[in-house]
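Hi support team,

I submitted a single chain yesterday and got back a structure, but I'm not sure I'm reading the token output correctly. Could someone confirm the output below corresponds to the sequence I sent? I've pasted both exactly as they appear in my results page.

Thanks,
R.
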Amino acid sequence: MTTPNKFLAYDDTRAERVERLFSRIAPKYDLINDLQSFGLHRLWKRKVIRLARFGPGQRALDLCCGTGDLALGLRACAIDDVQVVGLDFSGPMLELARSRRTAEGLHWVRGDAMRLPFPNEAFDIVTMGYGLRNVARLDHALREIRRVLRPGGRLLVLDFGKPDNPILRGLYFLHLRTLPPLLGKMLCGDSDTHAYIYASLMGYPAQRGVELRMQKSGWKSVRVHNLLGGIMGINYGEA
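Hi R., thanks for writing in. Yes, this is the structure output for that exact sequence:
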């Protein structure tokens, strides 16, 4: 089941539409994240950073980094001898990330998650916050991520989930169909900018489906960390 939305497509125009969406919402992105999650997205991102176990001598890649929350959090939790790269294909989002802070060992790169501009086995950790749901070919993106991870390297994907409990799932979907589009209309002038969340989630396998795909493609130690009953999910796996 999919919901019509001008920023969503399942053909060769998908990347172009997603880039247009995030370039448009960039100035209000952090504000709307706080409003629609009641600030909880900050706690969920801290959970990702704790699970990453990032430490001295390691390199981390934050894919679809947006305004840089996860990349900045990773850099802050490991004081010495680390490198963090934040990659996004939206220029306006990267400009906001760069404006927040520049620190030694922290780099911002404009690029495509489907064609990562890095050599094989370049990173110990890859994080991805609210990005896997937006790629044109999910399995291809997972292969590309695995290519740039060292053996034993860790992938952590945070995204909107589909709760197992049908009552909770129905209430959650009702929330996504009402509040985010209203915020999009009020703050971005277009309800489709945030109606996109529900529309894209309907075509996304969410945490259980991503878990299954990772298991079938050979990832190790695959598991799901559900947040708020599965409203959000963190997929974890090792290369």
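A quick pointer for reading it: Residues 166-188 form the longest helix (23 residues). Let us know if anything else looks off.

Best,
Support desk
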